Amino acid sequence: MTVSIALGRGRDGADVPLDLPELLATRLLVQGNSGSGKSHLLRRLLEQTASLVQQAIIDPEGDFVTLAARYGHLVIDGAEQTEATLRAAGERARVHRASVVLNLESLDAEMQLRAAGSFLNGLFDAPREHWYPVLVVVDEAQLFAPVASGDTSDEARRLSLGAMTNLMCRGRKRGLAGIIATQRLAKLAKNVAAEASNFLMGRTFLDIDMARAADLLGMERRTAEAFRDLARGQFMALGPALSRRPVMVSIGAVETASHATGPKLAPFEAMDATEMRDLILEPVESFTPRPRERRTPAPDLLAQLDAFAADRPASMVAPDAPPSKDADRDTLWRLVSDVTAEPDADYRPLATLYQDFQLRARIEGLGRDALDMPRFRMLLATVRSGIEAERARSEPWLQAETIASTLPEDVQGLALLLARAAMDGLPCPDDAALARAYATHSLGRARRQLAYLEERQIIVVREDGPHRRVAFVGLGWQTA
Predict the structure, then answer these.
(1) How many domains does the chain have?
(2) Residue scoring higher pLDDT (375 or 259)
(3) Is residue 261 part of a domain?
(4) Which of 120, 226, 299, 445 has the highest CB neighbour count under 10 A?
(5) Keyword Nucleotide-binding, does the record have it (predicted)?
(6) How far apart are the first and last CA of the chain?
């Protein structure tokens, strides 16, 4: 079935259609200097397809949050979420088929890379039964897939670049159609740009960008200077979803607008120089740069309890209130077991589980320092492994915990789940159990952690048809 939208009009005034099913299969690259109309083009495309296909938008400047009021997109503020939450949000957005705008305007460059990479990886790792078509729009793609490292850490750059590469190179079979927009092709990683089969090239002035755009469109280099003559909102289009030959298109009108409209020219009235000197050079004790405004998160429940305890009058405090009790292991085990018994506890963020534990500990009469985060994480993984409290004190199990502590935090629980099965000679946990231990709904992603543990020389995996046997290196344990 052919479903097309009117992207704009050509030189002859006729509509230039965009074939949506073909776009989903072949991806799109948009290029143009600042002010060429890229955001207007993306907004036109998103508005025209909002009722036809699910959308996920990586928005570094907050330009597309206004789509929510008109088309019902869910706006996620990246500054209020952790990387783990964003990764889970990507998976859940596909499960529930929700159109999402990931707003990153409040984050610095480093955190933008981490947030975008985590969210895109969540989209990519969704279970196979939820691989519905999604338009994944990434504005200012050169930020998330740079051709060279900049001021951000290598770890953040690898995370974001890997996610962008997966989107453009391997996303098609998972229903992900990448639409990336960039100011300069020369700043965009080539292995990301090269996977697009449809192109919309706007106004550009640098010779290197014009030459690369001409090569992508199959135009002769001597005609590349035509890109300098394009007006705002005009693009040269080519690709199976657009046209088999380069065609100029003027992008159509949009129904929503960005909340950031850019600077406007206003009448300028110069003040007297003496008055300005007194105003601008007024002595100050010390210069403090004005901080960027950002939303202040609400204090958590424990912080509110602490504030109440500090402010209440002495008459409200019981004279015989007992001091905080010392935490014994049996009590800690019981409290952590209660936390894991809550619905959906396997997929809740670690910070949320820790706050739940702290609240239970306070009710029990323990102090907030009853168990710090690293010890809570390890005890949580031990409880989830299914081992009994008494056996968890044994020397062999403490050795397993020591081995697990050398691993990244997100795989410690999975390692201890395998350790418990191998310790008792039980069958290897199935993929669903591995996924729960790794706090993901993606079975494939959980299976990949077995290969990682084997690379770290923690386990040895032997596949025998549908059966899997896992042995722990150095402990002499193996599953049935």
Answers:
(1) 2
(2) 375
(3) no
(4) 120
(5) yes
(6) 51
